[in-house]
Amino acid sequence: MNIFDLLVTTPFAFILRLFLTICQNEYWLALILFTIFTKVVLFPLAVKQKKGMLDQARIQPKIKALEKKYKDNKEKYNEELQKLYKDEKVSLFGGCLPLLLTVPILFGLYAIIREPLVHLMSLSELGRLQVYKAVFDSKVAVNADLVAALQSVFAPTPLTSPNILVQAFQDAFSAISGGGLSSAASTITAALQGITPDIAMGVPAPVSVITQSYQIHVAAVFRDNFSVLQELLPADVAKQLIPINFNFLGLSLGETPSFGQVSFLWLFPALSGGSAYLLSVLTQKNSGPQNANPQAQSQTKMMTLMSPLLSLWIGFSVPVALSIYWIANNLCSLLQEPISIWYLKRKHPQLYAADAGKGGDKAPLPDIIIEKNGRSKE
After folding, report:
1. pLDDT tens digit string along 309-329?
2. Cα(80)–Cα(70) distance, rounded to whole angstroms?
3. Helix (H, G, I), strand (E, B) or coil at 53
4. Torsion from C-alpha of 63, 64, 67, 68, nearest 10 degrees
5. Each residue of 158-189: b (16+ CB within 10 Å) or e?
6. Do 19 and 9 touch, CB atoms closer than 8 A?
7. Region for 249 from its dihedrals, namely left if φ exceeds 0, alpha if ψ lies in -120 to 50, beta otherwise
8. CA distance 96 to 82
9. What digits encode the pLDDT tens for the residues 56-67?
10. Which of 120, 190, 278, 304 is deepest in the core (most CB within 10 A)?
11. C-alpha distances out from residue 29 to 11, 230, 339, Å
């Protein structure tokens, strides 16, 4: 077990199993509860991020004043800027931690969703092989790619080559009868080229062809075929199986939407991108006064669009289950935003001092005022 699995994936899997038990193995509901749990745990960091953004907005007028005062002395400007951050007790990177924590949560949850037999059911490699064989023998698999993979491992089609040869020689005989010797030779040559050692000898494909991406399709058949599979498995393996319901609104959460095939699955990436856009707009609106610099405004617009586009792209690259988490995460963040503002207004009223009685989103006036002669006064 690597350090990431130890610190992230294993604890997350334990929490998700707990919620599955509470929700009677309804996967979509367990994912939503998991999302709410992580948002509650990370709420203090989210408040810190919000405060950091408001602090940055609050000192923007002072930063502009420094830029104007030391426009010809970059070294002095950087020195005074650092001093300003220190005096105002503002951290330049204070609001980044919650955003950075989103990455390991996504990767950890993706691993759990992709490999439920490993992370949710704790099956060993031998146990997984026994489960694959039981699924194949019971003929309960419905995913076409999974069926083909199981077929190549547990029931390769050996000695199909004689059939190929028989057909080839029949075609060749017909060609010879018709005087087409060159056509007969081409027919036999093509047949021989199509016979690989695996086909000729009936060698099974390695178990590795049943990749991690198939695990969720294997786990999906447990719900409706639980008793059948338990009879085919050793008792120690059977007791580890969890009959998880991967269906939501008639769709399988194990499927991945495809750009090349229009389906109802497109709804989840669309909701993921749409909720991310609403969150970006609301966050920008509640982050204090906007920078009047055209370049800064352009960067802000780009960041507002980047998150939705990234969410849309991810939605078409991962199983629907991860999109469920991302949509729930965005909706929780939308609800969390006014709560954070309420809390900060109570604990740090100076961040909203300029709003009192005005109803606007203006920052306090700068303490540094540039006089005509270039000197500053506090």
Report:
1. 888 998 898 899 999 999 999
2. 9
3. helix
4. -140
5. eeebeebeeebeebbeebeeeeeeeebeebee
6. no
7. left
8. 18
9. 778 888 888 888
10. 120
11. 19, 26, 24
User: In Å, how far are 27, 177, 205, 220, 266 from 140, measured between CA atoms?
Assistant: 20, 48, 21, 10, 27
pLDDT class of 40 with cuts at 50, 70, 90: very high
Q: In one letter, which amino acid is 50?
A: K
The rounded distance, in Å, linking the Cα atoms of 270 and 318 is 14
C-alpha triplet 44, 45, 47: angle, nearest 5°: 65
pLDDT per residue as tens digits for the range 268-298: 999 999 999 998 888 877 765 555 555 556 6
C-alpha 288: how far from chain center: 30
- Which two three-digit tokens encode residue 118? 């490993």
Residue type, 139: K
Per the structure block, which two tokens stand in for 44?
A: 């203090």
Give me the long-range contacts of 91-100 (CB less than 8 A, separation at least 24).
Answer: 91/52, 91/55, 94/48, 94/49, 94/51, 94/52, 94/55, 95/48, 95/49, 95/50, 95/51, 95/52, 95/53, 95/56, 96/49, 97/45, 97/48, 97/49, 98/42, 98/45, 98/46, 98/48, 98/49, 99/49
Contact status, residue 53 vs residue 95, Cβ threshold 8 Å: yes
Other C-beta atoms closer than 10 Å to the C-beta of 297 total 12
Q: What's 40's DSSP letter?
A: H
- Contact by Cβ (8 Å): 66, 19: no
| Both structure tokens of 329 | 């995460």
Q: What is the pTM of this model?
A: 0.74
| 376 φ/ψ angles, rounded to the nearest 5 degrees | -120, 155
Instruction: Tell me the one-letter amino acid at 89.
Output: K
Q: Which residue has the higher pLDDT, 102 or 291?
A: 102
